[in-house]
Write a structure and sequence with these properties.
The complex is a heterodimer of chains A (about 100) and B (about 400). With about 100 residues, chain A is mostly beta strands. In chain A, about 0% of the residues lie in helices and about 45% in strands. Chain A has no helices and eleven strands. In chain A, the strands form three sheets. In chain A, strands 2-3-4-9 form a four-stranded antiparallel sheet, with no helix packed on it. A four-stranded antiparallel sheet of chain A has the order 5-6-7-8, with no helix packed on it. In chain A, a hairpin with a 2-residue loop joins strand 10 and strand 11. Chain A is globular and about 40 Å long. Chain A starts with a strand and ends with a strand. The model of chain A has no long low-confidence stretch (mean pLDDT about 95). Chain B has about 400 residues and is an alpha/beta fold. Chain B has ten helices and 26 strands. The chains are: A mainly beta (about 100), B alpha/beta (about 400). Chains A and B meet through loops of A and helix 7 and helix 8 of B.
Chain lengths: ~100, ~400
């Protein structure tokens, strides 16, 4: 059953950046795009389970810090080797200065 | 008539090139030739986390299903004996002939060997089988001697300690990682290995290595004798150039290619560990890189250029190493620098920025727990690629985001 979970404060994520959020044994990554919108994906790279929150956000892309696998964090689509399996994405809403994701 | 592109070498570079040909829309035939019987697999885990499992389980780069899906014919276990350039065909060791229209040599590198060392207790690491053999010897109570304080030796030392083996590491020079790693970072790695219980011997060379009844015996120039269950030799790698050399292609610390990875034969390209190439961002200096990222990047680039793109190598050299909980990442060539600026990230993590005499950022070397330096090293890599001259004070100030310097 899907539920909305408070992941972080809206100000906890810098513009064009990403942070890690752990919930119920799962790792998520929360992004803030350059145009100030929020997104959420699985937090581990599908190549070798590395936390994506240590990676670099450039435009629509999150790049894994270890092996440079790339994903579009808005769609979850794998965009560069060695990543070839897409990330799952999650609905996000911002209320009262907090970011919620539907898990 | 259907074009046939052949790639010799089914490691990271060759496999990536094969996939990239398809991603680029090449509709001809693609054959990927591997000397080993295995499907293409990743090598970085061989000296690292792969060693921690009971049985080394390779991570496949491309499964048989995936290769079939994209239409890449994989010929494993095929030793190529010669390139017949006139007839444009490869000659297999078993006498088979494989015609090509374009050929990519991605033959990689092999461990540099010590002369006159023979016996099952002396091992080198390159293949899955090597990894499994070494893994089997890394047990609590076993004593491993490692010759060479480079990345392979150090990663294996850390892994051996995690498996409970005693480790003595012998380095002929006065410090670890003398090639390409700044001394400050090498000293930090050295301290971590000492803390981890590795005995480090510096400035002593090998006088003799012999097989004893139940052990290997290493005699050092100083006269010290070390007995070990296994001796791992990690003294660098040499490019696999014999096919190219025998076919008359130029060799200069690797198969000599131009900035587009082309050889002197318009139908033959080379990429990855086996080739040396001019790097424009360092004034056309010819380099050969043994790194996972380079193998990937050049595999893709070679594929594009086989299809006529005529693109020059533009990526910045980059590599990483994992030892214990530490990760080291380096972008660029630090020996091009004359000034060093240090950025402290806290918890022992730091980045050294190397600048040329005229203020250009030429390299960045970072170390820390996990991937804490990764984002900044990646940004530094972009700055290096743009030949940026960033403000020195800003580089050293952890309060200044490197991303902001990209926009400057």
């Amino acid at each position: 059953m899907a539920e909305w979970i408070e992941a972080c404060g809206a100000d906890d994520v810098d513009e064009e950046d990403v942070i890690r959020f752990d919930h119920a044994g799962k790792v998520f990554a929360i992004y803030r795009s350059p145009d100030d919108r929020y997104f959420a994906t699985d937090g581990l790279c599908t190549h070798e389970q590395i936390s994506l929150a240590d990676g670099l956000v450039m435009d629509d892309i999150i790049e894994c810090p270890k092996h440079n696998g790339r994903f579009n964090y808005k769609t979850g689509e794998a965009k560069g080797a060695p990543a070839c399996v897409n990330l799952r994405i999650y609905p996000v809403k911002v209320e009262d200065g907090a970011v919620f994701i539907e898990v | 008539m259907t074009q046939h592109f052949v790639i010799v070498g089914a490691g990271e570079c060759g496999a990536r090139a094969a996939m990239a040909l398809r991603e680029q829309g090449f509709g001809g035939d693609v054959t990927l030739v591997g000397g080993e019987n295995h499907l293409p697999y990743e090598r970085p885990p061989l000296s690292k986390e792969g060693m921690l499992a009971e049985v080394f389980a390779a991570k496949t780069i491309a499964t048989a299903e995936r290769l079939a899906e994209v239409g890449v014919a994989f010929r494993g276990g095929l030793q190529v004996a010669a390139i017949d350039r006139g007839a444009k065909r490869l000659v297999g060791g078993n006498g088979t002939a494989l015609p090509y229209d374009k050929l990519l040599l991605a033959t990689g590198a092999s461990p540099r060997r010590l002369p006159d060392v023979d016996g099952e207790r002396f091992v080198y690491l390159r293949t899955m089988e090597d990894a499994q053999r070494i893994r089997d010897a890394l047990n609590a109570g076993s004593h491993i001697a490692i010759v060479g304080g480079g990345f392979i030796g150090l990663e294996l030392a850390a892994t051996a300690r995690r498996r409970g083996a005693d480790v003595t590491l012998i380095e002929a020079l006065p410090r670890l990682l003398s090639r390409g790693v700044p001394e400050a970072i090498a000293r930090q790695i050295e301290a971590r290995h000492r803390e981890g219980g590795v005995e480090l011997v510096f400035g002593d060379g090998i006088a003799a290595m012999t097989s004893g009844a139940d052990s290997a015996v290493v005699t050092l120039n100083s006269g010290r004798v070390i007995e070990a269950d296994l001796v791992l030799i990690g003294i660098g790698a040499v490019p696999n150039v014999s096919l190219a050399a025998e076919a008359g292609l130029e060799v200069d610390n690797g198969i000599a290619v131009d900035q587009c990875l082309g050889t002197g034969d318009a139908n033959i390209f080379a990429a990855g560990d086996c080739c040396s190439f001019p790097l424009a961002i360092y004034g056309g200096r010819r380099v050969r890189l043994e790194s996972w990222r380079n193998a990937q990047d050049q595999g893709s680039l070679a594929a594009r250029n086989m299809l006529g793109a005529n693109e020059a190598v533009s990526s910045v050299p980059w590599f990483w190493s994992d030892q214990y909980e530490l990760t080291l990442q380096i972008a660029g060539l630090s020996d091009e620098g004359s000034t060093v600026v240090r950025r402290e990230l806290g918890d022992g993590a730091s980045i050294l920025f190397h600048l040329s005499a005229d203020g250009r950022l030429v390299a960045a070397s970072g170390i820390g727990v996990g991937n804490v330096v990764a984002k900044d090293i990646r940004l530094a890599e972009m700055l290096i690629g743009r030949a940026a001259r960033p403000d020195v004070a800003a580089l050293g100030d952890v309060g200044v985001k490197l991303k902001g310097l990209l926009a400057a």
